[in-house]
Specification:
The complex is a heterodimer of chains A (637) and B (74).
Chain A (H helix, E strand, L loop, with lengths): L1 E6 L5 H8 L5 E4 L6 E9 L2 E7 L11 H11 L5 E7 L3 H13 L4 E6 L1 H6 L2 E3 L1 H8 L3 E3 L8 H14 L10 H14 L8 H10 L2 H10 L3 H16 L3 H20 E3 L6 H9 L4 H42 L6 H37 L2 H13 L8 H7 L3 H7 L6 H11 L5 H15 L1 H25 L8 E4 L7 H35 L3 H14 L7 H9 L3 H10 L4 H4 L2 H13 L4 H11 L1 H29 L1
Parallel strand pairs in A: 1-4, 1-5, 5-6, 6-8
Antiparallel strand pairs in A: 2-3, 3-4, 7-9
Chain B lengths: L10 E7 L3 H9 L7 E7 L6 E5 L2 E5 L1 H4 L2 E5 L1
Antiparallel strand pairs in B: 1-2, 1-5, 2-3, 3-4
The chains are: A alpha/beta (637), B alpha+beta (74).
Chain lengths: 637, 74
């Protein structure tokens, strides 16, 4: 048996899922789409059932691709019963979707979640009456405290076993007679929807369904249009609005009957927005919160990274000594494997884990949408929206979580631009190049200048990119959920799933990439690599030996400093490079091609095309920025 | 009058809105339909979005969209 969890965003659906799901939960995609869901096995009454956490949607309109996938999934035989999770403190809004679910006539149980929150704001809900009005089981629940979960799943299993379908909601007389007319014509039509639900969606004007029906029965179009025209004429608005109005009318009626509004206790949480969204204090708060977040991730990562790197360095020396001193192909491959493993364990994971936990907390508290609210006008000036600030800030720690965090953006264009820009943000590894080369030999002032120059280039790139890929989204419309205390279980489960994705999908590629570079190293292709990079090093006035460190720097950015020493034959850079060359090299390293781990994550999140576009873009930007830095530096040195 | 003309803490009723399908779809999703009451909670500074209360749910709306939402004072 399979149970589907469905509900609007912020209804506590994922809290419920995480309360019941095991660590073996699997994420999956609806076939042929990027719409994801999570599935896990749960033990109910001694038998094992599958529980699917469907993406949170506000409505079930077929016009939205993600929502259409959800409808298709629900109406295919994949799911035996759905648990419709409702936020009891925002009941009337959630019921609108319940009405849509009832139209689908699939076995359903309503979980009335967040009863404690409803209590707090003085909302009393007559559960019995709600049960009777829809004639479906309703179970009160406080998922965050584990209350009501067991009875809800027991009820769901029973409803599923009996295949107990709900009665579809009935609408006004004129709609009903139109539906009866249409239904009769649709009897022989094959669809994933039942005839009545199909009739409703056709009336609404769902184009993909209309096309589907017309391909089977073209003559229906005339009748559909005349029914639509008639309704539009008598009600004075288009049919999609009429249907929407009917659903809202019904859900409002039910809400009015079952909700009794008592006294609302104003608590600290209600006042929090007065501080956190204050025109002045709000921004100070934002800076402090983001600084603490960044600093927390960075400090924690640093603690773990340094000893792990030491360990791997010693391990590598030891292993190489056992395999004949590091000259043979075998030891080279071993070095490659170790570097790939250590790159994942020691460099990416120490930052990724605290980052994902921190992001999960910010997400579950409800602060992320507030960032969008505060930053919207500023980010608009470079052609982006408020939430895009998050990947930038994270990029300073490590670009991998920065790319992952673009998931919080809904728009594809926005995701691509933010991902592209966050690869230009100098991560901790590139910081080591800027500091090890420029700050150490030429003074911290110049290092700061490089950072400021970097911000300028990012803003400029954002401007140019948003001109090339124009903004089609109409602007911000975003729910600001109520502040909540996150449950540790949810935060850690979410972090764990994302980390597992990195381990399973990105890490193996990182190891393979390291081995390939190690073999290249063994084959002594330094001359070849240097020649390959020569056009760039020549234009930038750098010695031709920089080819090898730059190419290996793609594997791991700190290698572009470590291997520079090896390539030039001295770690005392002031003896082998001029100040102008140091600045130019540092600027080039700050901007050029993202590291392998970042590239892999870009490919996974945004596709191979986006990855190559970003590689090309960063190469061009790095060359131009390098040239600019060279020209400017030559004026002073 | 449109949503931008409404002072903070004033309750208004949505009359209609103009604009593409995307806008009306998203507004409708969040329960901002014609006939519904909304209250302006706050404005973000520097031409930023505004935050409204729609049936107990707080929603941030960019000014471009807010300008297209026609409302009447209750």
């Amino acid at each position: 048996m399979r149970i589907g969890l469905i509900g609007q965003p912020n209804c506590g659906k994922s809290t419920l899922f995480n309360q019941v799901a095991g660590y073996k939960a699997e994420t999956g995609n609806f076939s042929g789409t990027t719409v994801t869901f999570i599935e896990s096995q749960v033990r109910v009454l001694g038998s094992v059932v599958d529980v699917v956490d469907l993406p949170g949607t506000y409505t079930l309109a077929g016009t939205n691709p993600a929502e259409r996938e959800v409808i298709k999934y629900l109406t295919s035989n994949a799911v035996d019963v759905v648990i419709n999770v409702l936020d009891a403190s925002h009941l009337s809004l959630g019921l609108a979707m319940t009405v849509e679910l009832l139209e689908l006539e699939i076995p359903i149980v309503i979980a009335l979640n967040m009863m404690d929150e409803a209590d707090r704001i003085g909302i009393h809900i007559d559960v019995e009456m709600l049960k009777n009005m829809f004639d479906v089981p309703v179970i009160p629940m406080i998922a965050s405290k584990g209350r009501g979960i067991q009875p809800c799943f027991v009820q769901a299993v029973q409803v599923g076993q009996r295949n107990q379908k709900p009665k579809p909601p009935s609408y006004s007389h004129d709609i009903e007679s139109s539906l009866t007319l249409l239904e009769r014509e649709l009897e022989a039509v094959e669809s994933y929807l039942n005839p009545r639900a199909l009739a409703i969606k056709l009336l609404e004007g769902d184009q993909s369904l209309i096309d589907q029906v017309l391909s089977q029965k073209p003559e229906i179009l005339k009748d559909l249009r005349s029914i639509q025209d008639e309704l539009t004429h008598s009600r004075g608005k288009t049919t999609d609005w009429i249907i929407n109005e009917e659903r809202t009318k019904l859900s409002d009626q039910v809400a009015q009957q079952v909700i009794r509004q008592g006294k609302r206790n104003i608590t600290f949480r209600d006042k929090l927005d007065d501080i956190l969204l204050h025109p002045i204090i709000g921004y100070i708060g934002l800076i402090i919160i983001l600084y603490l977040f960044f600093q927390g991730v960075y400090t924690f990562g640093g603690w773990i990274e340094a000893p792990l790197m030491d360990f791997f360095a010693q391990f590598e020396v030891w292993l190489v000594s056992r395999f004949g001193g590091g000259e043979g192909i075998l030891s080279q491959i071993l070095i490659g494997v170790i570097q790939g493993i250590s790159g994942g364990v020691a460099i990416v994971l120490p930052y990724l884990v605290p980052f994902l936990v921190g992001l999960g907390i910010l997400e579950d508290v409800g602060y992320l949408p507030r960032i969008a609210f505060l930053m919207d006008s500023l980010m608009h000036k470079i052609g982006l929206h408020g939430k895009s600030i998050v990947p930038f800030i994270l990029g300073f720690g490590c670009n991998v979580p920065a790319i992952m965090s673009t998931r919080i953006l809904e728009d594809k264009r926005e995701r691509f631009i933010s991902a592209a820009l966050s690869t230009l943000v100098p991560c901790a590894a590139r910081l080591s190049v800027v500091f090890g080369l420029v700050a150490f030999y030429l003074g911290p002032g110049l290092a700061l200048a490089i950072y400021l120059f970097n911000l300028f280039v990012i803003a400029l790139t954002a401007k140019i990119l948003s001109k090339i890929v124009p903004d089609t989204s109409p602007g911000l419309i975003l729910e600001m959920p109520v502040y909540r205390v996150p449950t540790l279980r949810t935060v850690f489960s979410k972090a764990w799933w994302r980390i597992r994705e990195f381990i399973v999908e990105a890490w193996p590629l990182l190891i393979v990439g390291s081995v390939v570079l190690a073999i290249l190293n063994y084959l002594n292709v330094a001359i070849f690599l240097n020649t390959l990079v020569r056009p760039f090093s020549w234009v930038l006035g750098l010695p031709h030996e920089v080819g090898v460190p730059l190419i290996f720097g793609v594997l791991r950015k700190e290698l572009s400093l470590v291997m520079l020493g090896q390539a030039l034959g001295s770690m005392e850079f002031s003896t082998v490079l001029t100040p102008v060359q140091m600045i130019t090299y540092a600027v080039f390293v700050v901007f050029y091609i993202p590291c392998l781990a970042t590239m892999i994550v870009i490919r996974k999140e945004l596709g191979g095309k986006a990855m190559w576009l970003i590689v090309a873009m960063t190469t061009v930007i790095a060359t131009i920025a390098g040239l600019f830095a060279r020209g400017l530096a030559e004026l002073f040195f | 009058m449109n949503l931008l003309d409404v002072p903070i803490n004033q309750s208004v009723r949505i009359v209609t809105y103009s604009g593409g399908k995307g806008v009306s779809f998203k507004l409708r999703q969040l329960g901002l339909c014609p006939g519904k009451e909304v209250k302006i909670l706050r404005y973000a500074p520097m031409g930023g979005p505004l935050m409204v209360d729609a049936g107990g749910r707080s929603v941030a709306i960019g000014r471009g969209i807010a300008a297209r939402v026609q409302v009447e004072v209750i």
